[in-house]
Amino acid sequence: MDTEGGNSVPEDxxxxxxxxxxxxxxxxxxxxxxxxxxxxxxxxxxxxxxxxNKAGSISIIxxxxxxxxxxxxxxxxxxxxxxxxxxxxxxxxxxxxFLGHLEQDKILNVPDRWKFDHK
Length: 119
What we know:
The protein has a domain at 28-98. It has two helices and three strands. The model has no long low-confidence stretch (mean pLDDT 84).
């Protein structure tokens, strides 16, 4: 991703591949529509300029002080990846949130599962 010239790198020679996703359905425009929905769940997206080996992450920006105050989240997505890979990353990171890997969020009805081990 960071070099010019020479032979082309094979399409599947990347750290993250989303060839299973139909690229006609997840293009930049459709991905943009999905990204615009994130603030409804207090998730704020930042696109980062990263190498191929970094897809994204999600973390807590601020935790609500009461059960009625919303927790806000920051999601990072590698802007250098193809839309299908970005979509896969977005779904993966939302999985962490909604499965409770970032602790409980009563407003989003997310259980507290962050202390569980892999078993």
